[in-house]
Amino acid sequence: MAQSITTITPFCVRRRRYSAVLLVLLLLFVAANYLLSITLHRTAMVSGWTLFLLVVVLTAYNLRKRITFLPLGRSSTWLQVHIFVGLLSIAVFGMHIGWRIPNGVLEVALAGVFLTVALSGIVGLGISRVFPRRLSERGEEVFYARIPRVLHRIRTAVEQEVLACLREDDSTAVPEFYSKHLRPFFERHHHFWNHLIKSRRSELKLLRRMDAYTRYLNSHEKQAIEAIKDYVKVKSDLDFHFAHQKILKTWLFVHVPLSYSLVVMAIFHIVLVYAFAGAGS
Amino acid sequence: MTEARHVFDFDRGEYERPNQQWTCGRASEGLTCALGPSGSGHCGAVCEPYLDGDRYYCNNVSMLSNGCDVGPLENGSCCQIPAECQPARKAGKWVCTRGQCLHGPSADGQCSQKAAVCRPHRSIWAQRRALTIGTVALVLGVLLALGAGRYHASIVSPGGLASVHSTSSCQDCHQAGEVGLSDWVSMALSPSDRSVQSEQKCLSCHRELGTSPLHAHGLEVAELEKMSALAARSPSSTRLLIKAARAVFTPHNNEDKLDCATCHQEHRGRSHDLKGISNEQCQSCHKTTFHSLSDGHPQFSDYPYARRTRIYFDHSTHFNQHFDSFERIMPEGKKPTSCLTCHELDGNGHKFVVRGFEEACSSCHTPQISDSAIPGVVLFGVPKLDPTTLAEDDQPFTLGIWPNHPGLGGSDLFGASGEVPPILALLLLADERYAQHADVLAGINWPVLDDANPEQIEAVLGFADALKQLLHELATGNRARLQARLDATIGMLTSATVVSQLVDLLVEAELASARAAENWFNGLMDEIGENGESLRQDGLTFSEVAKTPGDDRISWYLDSTDLSIRYRPVGHADGRMKRWLDLAISIKNSVSPKTAKGEPSVRKAVQRLFTEMTSPLTAGRCTKCHSIDQSATDDGIAINWIGSRPDERVSLFTSFVHLPHVKDTMQRNCISCHETEGEECSYCHKIKTDVSRYRPHFFDRQWVPAFDHTHFESDFSDVETSTCGDCHSRSSTRDNCLKCHNYHIHREPGPTFSVNP
Predict the structure, then answer these.
(1) Does B16 contact A145 at a Cβ distance shorter than 8 Å?
(2) Residue B539 belongs to what domain range?
(3) B253 in a domain, yes or no?
(4) B406, part of any domain
(5) Is B582 on the interface with A (CB under 8 A)?
(6) Model ipTM?
(7) How confident is the model at residue B139 (pLDDT cuts 50, 70, 90)?
(8) Model-level pTM?
(9) Which one of A10, B143, B156, B506 has the largest count of C-beta atoms within 10 Å of its C-beta?
(10) Which residues are CB-neighbours of B425 under 8 A, at least 6 positions away?
């Protein structure tokens, strides 16, 4: 009898624990916000300051990665706290603006920046869960910083094969094919978006073209083409890794700068709120 | 491809520097050196051989570590610097001169390996940091520029204003709107009085909010405490939600001053409801809590009749008695067919107001106003003096001309009590000849002076002289003299305006006074000089009283029966009568019991004037219907000349708009098609059958006006809560506190004490 075995990993336990805490905090805040509104207190001030503190805590995660010499807890714990505090801040933000589109120019900009940061964070969270699994499923893992030199080595190896054909057979068939069809492929990364959707169409197309060209070659050249086909597959895997790691690195180019900008805009917003306090504001 | 991509051995692995700002520019070629770029982004592998003795030595650490066996050249240059290829042009093509090169020269003849020189580039982290710093600087710069710029108001505004404030600018409501960006920070850090100043800006426009506008409901703390104590006794249900809110977060109490923004949230767009507030928010401060109007709302105790009507009208007696015996009592009267005969909806549809006198009351009450059987108000009167005592043949008293009074015994004005009519007394008290002997004259029997002592006789003669001089002043319209008289008496009590207006009234009696002088004192003008000096001859001459032709006894008229000058209104809304009453009340208001100004005799005359004028039995019978109210904030009183009218200055706790309710009631009772005018009123307003309890709220037993309008029991039954709850139920959208209640209470501004006609 088949019996399904469910394995609960420590990661799952931690995620459930944080989710429960998030839910409790969220309910507490919603209840407090409602009760404050009933008693005619300034809920916008409470939610506003709460949101600002949450944003500061969220931004501090980036600083935490710079301060490695202080025992401030494990980075993975910080990341989990960052994720759940980020989700909590979205709910607090919604309550702060009353679940409506702000009216003022500055308010719209502030809300837009917050939502962009939040959305980029959610996207980052999603790709950081999906992409590593994809990367481990295809080809050999490679550091992002080393991808250029691996590409260079692949290209050099392919060129050696091509030069060998030229030297030994005195034939230009393979070099010409390389120069016309393969050189652009090996010079730089290709088919970025295709790799992101896990499409191998372009790779297979190139391999088919190489197979079709083989009939015009002698045996030595055929061996060279077969060797180059291996390099095409390795290069395609490298492009796959490059595309995914590029995204993994790039989303932070949106998330981090706008997070700090958000803090600056929030401080400006707070100054305005206090300077213009009263009179129905 | 089987070779390992990553070598992690310490001496063979490629040195990665992801945390540093710069990375090797040749890393992509696999030519990373162990030294790496410098902190400023320059290649650290540049070899600059140094000369030691007669030989150049290599100083490139990276090359040494990689094993540079050749060393610097003889001329001191590095052996690793690639000799630049000089591409040659053959058969129209650029070819490499250093061997086979797959890339070959570029189309313009440049060596493709020229770019092999290391040019470090920023690491990903450094790129992100640079972008972060740049973005933050850009955002900060944009914020500062916009905040300090010309259009900063539209930039910092958190949204559009509600339509009622749409024409306001920042500085109209915010002190910060008057200054610029540089002051906002300091204002934000010193919030002590900023809020107060902002509220003052609100109140500079909203002046109708009373003396305690920031306290709950705009009421004084003491009044709030009093109302809270009353409310605490009202039975009501308890809402756990509100109870929890109070337990967790302290609600506002009676002493708290509430910012306008506590309830009024601005900058939410033109269509935002500035007055929007939930039922729970209302109840969070209240002692009593309940779920809805139909579930737990306290019963109405005195709604909608919190005070007596301004115009005295007893619905119960009229409907249960008068209208039943209508034809006998008021033969000219018209019996109302419905409530709408006498009431009409005001222009806004808020309130049913009483129609004018002509439409609602005149058919019955005009005869009462013009009833000639009621004598007019006395301005001047001549007492009947004892001819036997004063005109003894041997030694007549020096009195000059005196009318041969037609009155009999005590039928004249002065009668047996000898009391001088109040207006006359106020005028004569300025004359020493009367003022000094006023006490002696009290109770004197004017027609029979044979028992009078010499002092009383002297007082009578002095009074008679003073009276004739007063008539002379009235008959000649001597405004200055009359003004001087009143200044000497009530001038100490009341304002110059009141005195002046009273003089105006007296001067208007000039014609009647002249006729009195001519008819009763034939030759009076010869006895008194232009400056008021006496020119009379010795002795006493009784002149015959001439008949007064065509006396219709309205307006100023002479009453030949008691030799008096009187005023009687010509009809309803007589302006002169209204002025008399307003002046009498104004003077009375000035004689406050708390102040002891004025002579006792003057104060007594003022009181008598007020009593006479405000009696419902006085000519015109004004106060029979027009009630007199005591002001809630002042010691004064005033006549309600008109019935209740909508007043924008007044906002009570409860408001009711009749129009939609009347329409709704009509539809629900199938009246929209069937003509039954006014029947819908009785759905809420039910007249009581007990007819004995209404009048005492307006008059005491002696028909003396009662002034307290708050002590009142209506001749209508109170509206039941369930009457409203039928429609305003919990499940409907109309079950909102603000549907019926106002937050800002503007008390009735009180009776108007203006004496302007």
Answers:
(1) yes
(2) 377-620
(3) no
(4) yes
(5) no
(6) 0.90
(7) very high
(8) 0.70
(9) B156
(10) B438, B601, B605, B608
